[in-house]
Amino acid sequence: MPKATFYNLPEEKRQLLIRALEKEFSRVPVFEASIANIVKTANISRGSFYQYFEDKEDAYFYILQEQANSRNRQFIEQLEKHEGNLFDAITAFYYDLLIELPDEEEYNFFRNALLNVTHQIENIFNDIIVSNVKEGMEEITRRINMDILNIESEKELRHVIQIISAVAFRNFVEKFTEELSDEEAIENFKIDMKLLKKGLAK
C-alpha cells in the first residue's frame, strides 16, 4: 500500500499521480508497465515515485483496490435498489459494470487485470462483493433479504455470497479471455444465476 508521503500529498498532485497510474496500467499489464512513463505523465521525479510507493506493483494494487472499493459501493446501492434481492442486485450490478466500461481506458485497465490474473488480483476482485473487513461484510449481509433464500443462518449466507462472487469473477475473466460481447457475457451470467437460484431460492 502507499506510503504515508502519498497520503500527505496535496489533493491535486495526488490525483494527477493517480491518473498517471491509471493511464499506464490501462496501456499495458502491470509487469510491462513503465515507471518512466508514470513519472513523466505525473510530472514527478523517479525518486519521488519511490517516496510514495515501494514499486510499480505496490502502486498497481493500490489502484486496483480503489476500483474494487468503488464497485463495492455500487453493489450495495444495487442491493438497496432491489430491496435485498441478492440475485436481482448482482445481475443488475454485473450488467451495469459491463455497460459502464465503454470508457476505453477503464475497459483496458480491467481487461489487462483479468487477462493476467494472479491470486492477489482475484482476492481484490472478490472484495467487490465479499468484503474481507468484518464491518464491510456486515454492511452487505444486513441489506440482503434472507426470507427469499433457502438458507438457515448468516454463516450459510456468507457462503452463498462467496459462491456468487466466484461465479461473477469467472464470468468477467471469461468475458475477456474468450472475447465475448457484452450481450454474450450477460446472457452467460444470467444462466449461472438462474441455476444458482433454482438451488437456493424458496
Would you mind describing this structure in some detail?
The termini are far apart. The radius of gyration is 18 Å and the shape is elongated. The chain is mainly alpha-helical and 202 residues long. The model has no long low-confidence stretch (mean pLDDT 88). The chain is built from eleven helices and no strands. The longest helix has 26 residues. Helix 2 runs antiparallel to helix 3 and helix 5 crosses helix 6. Helices cover 73% and strands 0% of the residues.
Number of helices: 11
How far is it from the N-terminal to the C-terminal residue, by CA?
Answer: 43 Å
Number of strands: 0
State Rg.
Answer: 18 Å
Order of helices and strands: HHHHHHHHHHH
Helix residue percentage = over 70%
Shape: elongated
User: What structural category characterises the helix and strand content?
Assistant: mainly alpha
Can you give the mean pLDDT? 88
β-sheet strand percentage: under 5%
Strand count, sense and barrel status of the largest sheet are: none
Runs in which pLDDT lies below 50 for 5 or more consecutive residues are none
